Amino acid sequence: MRFLAGALAWLESRSGLGAFIKPLMSHHVPRSATWWYVFGSATLMFFVIQVVTGVCLGTMYAPSAAEAWQSLRYIDKEVPAGWMIRALHGWSSNAMVVMMAIHMLQVFLHASYKYPRELNWITGVCLLLVVLALAFTGQVMRWDQDAYWGLGIGASITDRIPVFGSQIRDLLLGGPIIGGETLNRFYALHVFILPGAAIALVGLHMALIMRHGISEMPRPGAPVRPASYKKEYEERMARDGVPFHPDASQRDMIFCGVCLIALVVVAAIYGPFGPGGEPDPTLIDTNPRPDYPFMWLFGAVSLLPPASETFVMLVTPGVIVLALFLVPFLGNAGERAPSRRPVMVLAAAFAVIAIASLTWEGLASRWSPVMNGWSALPTPAQFVRGRTPLEMQGAVVFQFAQCRNCHALGGSGGQRGPALDDVATRFTPEQLTRQVQQGGGNMPAYGKNLSRAQMDAIVGFLSTLTPSYETPAAIPGAMLPLPISSAEPAPR
Amino acid sequence: MTPLFSALSSVIARRWLASVALLVSGVACDRLPGAPSSSSAPPRGSPQWTLATFDTHCRGCHSMADEGASIPLMDRSYWTFASDAHVIDATTNGQGGLMPAFLDENGGPFTADEIAALARGMRTQWGGSVAGSIAATYTAGNAVAGGLVFAQSCGSCHGPTGTAGSLLDPSYLRLVSDQGLWASTLAGRKALGMPAWNEPMPGRPSGLTPGEAADVVSWIASQRPGGRGGAP
């Protein structure tokens, strides 16, 4: 026991580790800093999990275009608990982005970025960008169809940058196309450059927290006055503050523990992300989509009118990032309480609602046709019952012409165009003929692809699509065959 | 140790912690719901493969008895007369009309082996054996005699003024090949009210004979505008 104490004393005298850590643990934080202040710590915990699981994966992952996909299958299937490491890494990355957003929202709503903590906010914004870059490069590591097409979209966005676009693209991809070198470049970014930058920024962020202390809970009528703030803050801390450990750290630990348990449960239930199909550019029968942190961007870009694409894709991210950097300089003094800053609260609410609804749009991706709808989704029973032979053939033409890929019947099918369950209540047969022939409203024209008989049949079928269709009563003599030219060849 | 901390640690029993540790430690790992399934794609010809292939490529038109617009294959009636050779030929080359060719050489998604495996798999799934009482491939009969059969039996529902919709609509006849008329006549669509060829129907309590079936299809085909009567 005495030997142990001696050894510790020796270590302390030579390294000064204890003298370094002690003020970190015992420095005073505001008594008012309660459960609102746990989100930054949780973000840091998820980052540590990312580093640990990432190093584990680094020992098994093969960063070469030929072997990456296979090595992920190997980790999933052969390595004991390998899939769990991948699941933790994937879900923890999403959790980190979410926790970071919540932390940022809290800091924004409480105006903790005001004097003297402007640099805390700026390093935080830099961390946000690095973490998003880690998320994007991490998706590339999966090297599956999503990764391949995600990269393709990223590269073609880069390509739109004026003047230097193609050079930047070549630098990122290691050439004009996605090839063997591409994965190596993104691997270097994902495991060396970006984590290095993140660790440095986290260190800076923490050093700034120590330098300026944790901000107090905002109170209406207690504005920040730069001239006297630091002096008053230090006086209040000396008089009324509590030590970080254990008063504040226990809340951090409890919240981090709950987050950790939730992470393990989610990883155990939902498992790792991908890898999806092999990254084969000849397979076009795929529905690639980005990971959750970029789903809102996917939704936004997909809903843009084509003419505005380049401008919005290149200018908007720059404007958003610039606005985030400028936040502490637009008002670094004055009231911090949300109740006294209605415009800022509205801005935050707008951002949250916009990102949430665009994410929802991206997840639903109603603009994507269901590519095998025509061959996989049968005409529902209520739409074949009581139909004439011609109308039944129309339903076959409806499948054959792949209408179903964009139009739903009975709740299944594409959502790019309107559902047609009751189209006959909106369109007369003449209007249906015109719409199918000439298209319009984002629908292609099918006039040249359908014979006259096929058009008759499909319009006949569509004309029966009403909520309670019944076979029309037969009128004697009314359904005699019409004379029709013999120009079209009959099938064999 | 603050009150909050000690209260919490007393709540969490050691045994509970140990079971969580066991869960995480990979001992039970491969039995968790998130573990990737170890089985890869089902082998060709297996029931799972047949169903998955059918659901992706065929079911849009050929579904169950009461749904889908074309002849239902998830129903026994078609399989009573369609031999494997006929199903393979129809899938390989298409069927005139709207049925496309599915062989890769003909622009389709399947190899010849896959088509054969699919035909056998579908029969195992829904078909059973071929009854053999009538040929699956259409051979023209006597159109004049067929006109009488149509007037006596089919026409009561499918005549120019029939309640089930006229079979003689020129657009319909243009879209359906003779073989298509033949298959529809033989299989019927019982769930939608149309009997199979050998089931009771108006004017024929014991159904059609094979000869009558060929005659009536010949007559219907002869009504197709453009002068193409009868034989394919």
Q: What does this protein look like?
A:
The complex is a heterodimer of chains A (492) and B (232). Chain A is 60% helix and 1% strand. Chain A contains 18 helices and two strands. Chain A has helices at residues 2-15, 17-26, 39-58, 68-77, 82-109, 118-141, 145-159, 165-173, 180-212, 229-240, 244-270, 295-303, 309-330, 342-364, 373-376, 389-400, 429-438, 452-462, and strands at residues 28-29, 242-243. Among the domains of chain B are: 47-127, Cytochrome Bc1 Complex, Chain D, domain 2, CATH 1.10.760; 143-222, Cytochrome c-like domain (Cytochrome Bc1 Complex, Chain D, domain 2, Orthogonal Bundle), CATH 1.10.760.10. Chain B is an all-alpha fold and 232 residues long. The longest helix of chain B is centred in the middle third of the chain and has 16 residues, at 112-127. Chains A and B meet through helix 5, helix 11, helix 15, helix 16 and helix 18 of A and helix 1, helix 2, helix 3, helix 8 and helix 9 of B.
Q: How much helix, percentage-wise, in residues of chain A? A: 55-70%
Radius of gyration of chain A: 31 Å
CATH topology-level name of the domain at 47-127 in chain B: Cytochrome Bc1 Complex, Chain D, domain 2
Beta-strand share of residues of chain A: under 5%
Alpha plus pi helix count of chain B: 10
Helix content of chain B: 40-55%
Gross morphology of chain A is elongated
- Radius of gyration of chain B (CA) equals 28 Å
CATH superfamily of the largest domain in chain A: Cytochrome Bc1 Complex, Chain C
Biggest beta-sheet profile of chain A: 2 strands, antiparallel
CATH architecture of the largest domain in chain A: Up-down Bundle
What is the strand tally of chain B? Answer: 0
Q: How far apart are the termini of chain A?
A: 99 Å
Largest interface: pair, residues per side: A-B, 70 and 64 residues
User: What is the CATH architecture term of the domain at 47-127 in chain B?
Assistant: Orthogonal Bundle
**Total domains of chain A, how many?**
2
At the first level of CATH, the class of the domain at 47-127 in chain B is Mainly Alpha
Q: pLDDT average of chain B, as an integer?
A: 85
